[in-house]
Design a protein that fits this description.
Layout: H1 4-23, E1 27-35, E2 40-47, H2 54-70, E3 78-83, H3 94-99, E4 104-113, E5 116-129, E6 132-139, E7 142-147, E8 151-156
Parallel strand pairs: 2-3
Antiparallel strand pairs: 1-2, 4-5, 4-8, 5-6, 6-7
Family: Belongs to the RimP family.
InterPro entries: Ribosome_maturation_RimP, RimP_C, RimP_C_sf, RimP_N, RimP_N_sf
Organism: Syntrophus gentianae
């Protein structure tokens, strides 16, 4: 469970990091802020069409490290990790669910829907139903309508065919 301070820290870092990445032609995918025993662990996931290179990660890490230090975020010692989202890219924003319709996904919910808390199937649609954003996920030829606000974690599932 992420603390309220962790959520605020994540938002603050997001607002600082996003324009830096955009200026380099990169898209900010996710910011994670984890409190470790003696320091914070800050993870930045970024992407672009054609993928992210090691030079991209190094350059963004240097820029963001300086910016975080100037803003004293997080306060005290921290470790900054910058990387591509990988094959199991997290789906965080609504536009991620829209973009990856038709792809295989793994979705974990905070409470069960039709007796299921963890779905692994094809994201058929992302739409609004009765004023609520819904994921439509096909699992074993059955469609499940999953409220977006119940999603705790969602990732693409890469298939090795």
């Amino acid at each position: 469970m992420v603390s309220e301070y962790g959520k605020k820290l994540r938002e603050d870092i997001w607002h600082l990091a996003e324009p830096v990445l955009e200026s380099e032609g990169l898209e900010l995918i996710q910011v994670e802020c984890l409190r470790m025993k003696t320091r914070w662990l800050i993870r930045i996931y970024m992407d672009r069409d054609g993928g992210v290179t090691l030079d991209d990660c190094s350059g963004i890490s240097n820029q963001l490290g300086d910016i975080l230090d100037v803003h004293d975020l997080p306060p005290g010692p921290y470790t900054l990790e910058v990387s591509s989202p990988g094959l199991d890219r997290p789906l965080v924003r609504d536009k991620d669910f829209i973009r990856f319709q038709g792809c295989d996904v793994s979705v974990r919910l905070e409470e069960k829907v039709e007796g299921i808390r963890h779905f692994r199937g094809r994201l058929v649609a992302f739409r609004e139903e009765e004023g609520r954003k819904m994921l439509v996920i096909e699992v074993a030829s059955k469609l499940y309508h999953v409220p977006r606000d119940l999603v705790v974690k969602a990732n693409l599932v890469y298939r090795f065919d």
